[in-house]
Specification:
Four Helix Bundle (Hemerythrin (Met), subunit A); single chain; mainly alpha; about 180 residues
């Protein structure tokens, strides 16, 4: 076995280990989202899940998608969630009585759907391996072209939107605080 092949195998093992660690963190955070009784904590656990998705994209060498994930979901959607929490004047502490009486029925349904999803994914993937991404050539040029087309003409409006979101955040805080 050559040294280059050994190094490539070590990278795959490291990627697999990193994938497992990130996936375990994401599963724990996802379970925490649905089990916590504090709405703000649930939103923060959701940020952890979405950050894990971005980390998985980085492991798959899809950096542009990872940055888009962070900007759109963690940056924008979570801000909207937190605005909703602040504007509805939801209690920040633990809330009781949020579950309905049929919550136990959801556990076997979720287990059935998990098993069905696992079967479909394993049947479709079988023993195929993911090709190593080409960091040069058409794939990289296409990513650069997309980034240039999106960010070049819209960079100033993008920065302007950050100030609008900042003003909205300050307004939501002012409206939500108790006098």
């Amino acid at each position: 076995m050559s040294l280059a092949l050994l190094a490539a195998d070590d990278v795959n093992v490291a990627q697999n280990v990193a994938f497992g660690i990130i996936a375990a963190i994401m599963i724990f955070a996802a379970l925490s989202v649905v089990t916590t009784k504090n709405v703000v904590h649930a939103a923060l656990w959701l940020v952890t899940v979405l950050g894990g998705v971005a980390a998985q994209y980085i492991l798959a060498a899809a950096e542009f998608v990872a940055v888009s994930q962070v900007m759109v979901y963690i940056g924008a959607v979570m801000v909207l969630f937190l605005f909703g929490i602040m504007l509805t004047r939801a209690r920040i502490g633990a809330d009781e009585g949020l579950n309905n009486s049929t919550w136990a029925l959801g556990i076997p349904v979720a287990a059935l759907l998990l098993g069905l999803l696992a079967y479909v994914v394993l049947d479709a993937v079988e023993d195929t391996t993911i090709r190593e991404p080409q960091l040069t050539g058409a794939n990289n040029e296409a990513t650069l072209e997309i980034a240039d087309r999106i960010l070049s003409p819209y960079l100033v409006p993008f920065f302007g939107m950050t100030f609008v979101l900042l003003a909205a955040a300050i307004g939501a805080i002012v409206l939500a605080r108790k006098d």
